[in-house]
Give the backbone structure.
Amino acid sequence: MTDLAAQRTDWGALWRSGDLARFCFISLGLIFHAGCENMITTIMPSMIREIGGVEYTGWSFAIYETGSIIAGAAAGRLSIYWTVRSNMIVAAIIFAIGCTITTLSPSMPVLLVGRVISGFGGGALISLSFVATQRYFPTRIWPQLMAILSVVWGISAFGGPLFGGLVDTLLTWRWAFGIFAAAALLFAAASRVVLHGEKPAAGSDAPGKFPWLALACLAAGVMAIAAAGIETRMPIAMALIAFGIAGVVLFFRLDARSTLSRLFPAATFNPRTTIGSGMIMVAALSVSTCSFGFYGPLLLAGLHDFTPLMTGLIIASESIAWSILSILVATASARFEPLIVTGGALMVTAGIAGFAITIPIGTIPGILFCALLQGGGFGILWPFASRRIIEAAADDERNLAASAFSTLQRMGYAIGAALTGIIANASGFSAGFTKEAAAGAAAMLFWPYLPLAIIGCVASFRLAAPRQPGIN
């Protein structure tokens, strides 16, 4: 195997050619999605005070994710029908329309309509960013470019709430969404100039019919799972989870049977293939790492009286570790690629086990170390795992593989968030946020996910194994 990753990348020449500037422009898709997704955490109190609807608070998060998952799954297929540029323009306009509706919303139900529309646009933009990376740039620099995308994602993930808080303080919460809407329209206009000369999509001569039925099953499944995460009545929550998983499974079955309109690569969950192993790894690790992000601040505040600033810094350290370690390993030699992928999965798993021990105790260095392990593990495996999956895909499925990688991650987060909510409610949070409830949930929110994380580790070893001829 040629040591492609070891070749020096001439970033200066790449910039002078305009390709690096184009990549920076493409990465704005992640900023729109991650920034709008996360900034609502800091402006939600102001929104509730003005338009009411506190009972819909959970839905403001869940419905955005629902739209982004569905659009993300469709984006790879749409990039076969149309060029990346056309898709980017349409996605940015949809995102701007959703943000505009949110800006002008007089009530929470109207705001939720805006959120789901902006979720469609944001989910498509992030998936198209990955498709554009493999469409515009050579394979040898994908890990470096994926590492940069990780940095952009990390900055947006913890910068979004800061942006929302600042705008809400200086102006109003409506301006935060209005600024995103205006920026998205500028992005759509600039796309006509910046995104040119892309390679044609393989297999575009016979793209097939658009898979409406499969997407409808996916939408119903994700909506049910999202609803389960905010349902306090355990029997109803479990029924919603069962219905949601059935909808997602049916989506993948319908998708696998389609030959001309597939949304995910063939053999998506076949553990004997590189693609299947990689997708299993992404799904398992994404589901198993939701507990800290969703309930870490509550547990630390309830059990140990951590200040919001302290918990915020610990949460942010996970994103920072993801970004920094992605950059540090991006230029590693290809012969170290298997070790990096498997090492990253083991780091994530160790972080989950560590949280189960350190959070009940409340040791700050231990909790911080586990956050660095979890974020850094994802950071080092992501660039190389994505490249191995995309390279293993058939030529006419590389667009699908590029978009499916990030879409499956968000699907894992949606399922993990719902399961975590059910565990938290069963552990005492359904009766209120008390120290006793936090103590009961502290370990139970982490240990049940350890077997799933181990499955992700096993899949990472299969992903890292040398491919046999004819085996994708």
